[in-house]
């Protein structure tokens, strides 16, 4: 078995398409205490994660891909505000956010699929304001890993709510930090 799986658009789309349904299955209908609590200082709650992913659909993945395709490495990506969701999502329900995320993700993937990117295009470079030059392939692979990271974060946050109640099993559950 290989150490890693090479990037393909089809695999990326297949994985990215699942995230809204995964989050809906994990979160829809849970009480606010479960969706609004985080797992420590400067961490996102599940509600925050969904808002953050919506903002990413609007301001990160496809917009940065467009910059690469149109400008290459001659123009920096626009900065991304990782915390924009705090203001944008005030007063909204999780159900609204889950619906909006599903809609935005469908639109992003429709756009990505319509581009029919070639390997040559995937190797085009853009310029990240912090990291310097990155390829379109790296950007799109990171989009997938970013989703999986936030799904993990949601699971970690939910598990954290029972950190006391699980008693002696805590050291055996990898979702909790080792102390």
Portion of residues within helices? 55-70%
Strand content: under 5%
* Average pLDDT reading: 95
CATH superfamily: dinb family like domain
Structural class: mainly alpha
Strand arrangement in the largest pleated sheet: 1-2
| Rg estimate, integer Å | 18 Å
CATH-derived topology: Four Helix Bundle (Hemerythrin (Met), subunit A)
Total number of helical segments? 8
Distance between the termini: 33 Å
Based on Cα principal axes, name the global outline: globular
**Low-pLDDT ranges:** none
Q: Give the biggest sheet.
A: 2 strands, antiparallel
Integer count of domains: 1
Number of strands: 2
Secondary-structure arrangement, i.e. CATH architecture: Up-down Bundle
List keywords for this structure.
179 residues, mainly alpha
Protein model, in words:
- Helix 3 (46-59) runs parallel beside helix 4 (61-71), helix 3 (46-59) runs parallel beside helix 6 (94-115) and helix 4 runs antiparallel to helix 8 (136-160).
- The mean pLDDT is 95.
- A two-stranded antiparallel sheet has the order 1-2.
- It is globular and about 55 Å long.
- The two termini are 33 Å apart.
- It contains 8 helices and 2 strands.
- It has a single domain (9-154), classed as Up-down Bundle (Four Helix Bundle (Hemerythrin (Met), subunit A)).
- It has helices at 9-27, 32-36, 46-59, 61-71, 85-88, 94-115, 119-122, 136-160, and strands at 125-128, 132-135.
- The chain has 179 residues and is mainly alpha-helical.
- The longest helix is centred in the last third of the chain and has 25 residues, at 136-160.
- Strand 1 and strand 2 (132-135) form a beta hairpin.
């Amino acid at each position: 078995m290989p150490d890693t799986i090479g990037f393909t658009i089809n695999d990326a789309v297949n994985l990215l398409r699942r995230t809204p349904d995964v989050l809906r299955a994990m979160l829809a209908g849970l009480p606010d205490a479960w969706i609004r609590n985080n797992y420590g200082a400067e961490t996102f709650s599940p509600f925050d994660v969904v808002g953050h992913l919506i903002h990413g659909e609007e301001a990160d993945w496809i917009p940065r891909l467009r910059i690469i395709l149109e400008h290459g490495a001659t123009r920096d990506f626009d900065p991304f505000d990782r915390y924009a969701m705090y203001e944008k999502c005030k007063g909204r329900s999780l159900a609204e956010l889950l619906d909006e995320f599903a809609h935005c993700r469908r639109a992003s993937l429709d756009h990505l699929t319509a581009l029919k990117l070639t390997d040559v295009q995937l190797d085009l470079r853009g310029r990240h304001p912090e990291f310097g030059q990155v390829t379109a392939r790296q950007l799109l692979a990171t989009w997938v890993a970013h989703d999986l990271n936030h799904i993990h974060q949601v699971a970690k946050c939910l598990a954290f709510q029972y950190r006391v109640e699980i008693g002696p099993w805590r050291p055996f559950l990898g979702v909790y930090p080792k102390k």
